[in-house]
Amino acid sequence: MGKHIAIGPVVDFRGKAIKLPKRDDDGDVDWETGTQDEDKTPENLPTESATTLTLLREVLLGLQASPDLRGIQRAEDSRRAMSLWNSMERCEGGTLEVHDKVYEWLHRLLKRDIPISKEEKDAGLEPLSVASRLYSLNAWTVIDQLKDVDDRKDPDDD
Fold it and tell me: Can you give the residue range of the structural domain that contains 55?
């Protein structure tokens, strides 16, 4: 293999747990049993505290489901996503082992810009990276927590 990503809770820039949609084994939102369709709103979305594995799952599911992210897919994404998913399935203990090329792909993906329309560009908006789109102010924190332990940075070092 190549790189080792520590498995554990993922926190935001304030040190608090990032919340993600609670999902079942198939990747579908795990709505409470008996929840009526009219109760299935973003405000009532069941959540769980993020771990490294659930965060990676959201990135991969988002790459497939989000119209913004589908538009930036590249030829290698399918193969690398499958390799990462398989590594996640095999993961045991406190670290996730991934091949160097998959690790590099993941971090390039998180830094990949999402194109914006001409109107947005004319309005002075700049493209957001995938990580910024998914995690807003927590983008740097998330990317750092998805790095090999030896590659992590101190946020105060510029």
Answer: 3-151
pLDDT of residue 113: 92
- The whole-angstrom separation of Cα 79 and Cα 99 is 12
> Does residue 157 form part of some domain?
no
Going by the DSSP 8-state scheme, the letter that residue 41 receives in this structure is S
- What is the residue-averaged pLDDT of the chain? 85
Q: Is 158 part of a structural domain of the chain?
A: no
Q: Tell me the pLDDT tens digit for each residue of 131-157.
A: 998 888 899 989 998 998 888 877 777
Report the distance separating Cα 1 and Cα 102, nearest Å: 10
Which of 26-63 are b and which e, b meaning 16 or more Cβ less than 10 Å from the residue's Cβ?
eeeeebeeeeeeeeeeeeeeeeeebbbbbbbbbbbbeb
- The tally of domains found in the chain comes to 1
